[in-house]
Amino acid sequence: MTDLPTARGDGAGVRTGTADGYGSDGWSPVPDSLAATSPTWALPGHVSIAPRVITRVSGAVVGEALDIDRRDVRVEAYDDSGRLGLRVWTPVGISPLAADADVPAGGVLGLLRELQATVATRLLSIADREVSRVDVTVTGSTVERPSTRRVR
After folding, report:
1. How far apart are CA 140 and CA 67, in angstroms?
2. Segment (H or E) for 139
3. DSSP assignments along 54-103, one per residue
4. Where are the domains of the chain?
5. I want to staple 120 with a disulfide (CB 3.0 to 4.6 A). Which of 85, 91, 131, 132 is the partner?
6. What is the mean pLDDT of the chain?
7. DSSP for 29-56?
8. Residues 142, 91: contact at Cβ < 8 Å?
9. d(CA 24, CA 12)
10. Where is this region: Disordered (predicted)?
11. Are 84 and 61 contacting, i.e. CB atoms less than 8 angstroms apart?
């Protein structure tokens, strides 16, 4: 640990830190260091995310997770005792029913349980919102067919 001057620069206090510029409290005298550019403390102010943004992000996460067009997904967000609840309506892509088909563990229900966990995890990381429940309604299915184009 080395002694580092405070941000005030008057020498009135001393902060301790490591030789690479990171203080024990997240402060760094190096302007471009990770500690200086992404503080571990919260700045005063209020940050809000509009409900429309939450529903759009949720739809994009579902579309990405199921490998479907996000425009085919409908999401409704609601307050669930202070946490975020989601209702999702989406089609599901099904592999062709052949002997060598790659079926997820648990079949379609397993796929949907995995979707619920993925949506909750991604919304926590993207929007910092804790999701308490994800209700999924399957609106249809599509069979993923290999492309069989004829060349003339």
Report:
1. 14
2. strand 131-143
3. HHHHHHHHHHHHHTS-GGG-EEEEEEETTEEEEEEEEEEEE---STT--P
4. 1-41, 51-143
5. 131
6. 76
7. SSTTSHHHHS-SSPPSS-----HHHHHH
8. yes
9. 18
10. 1-25
11. no
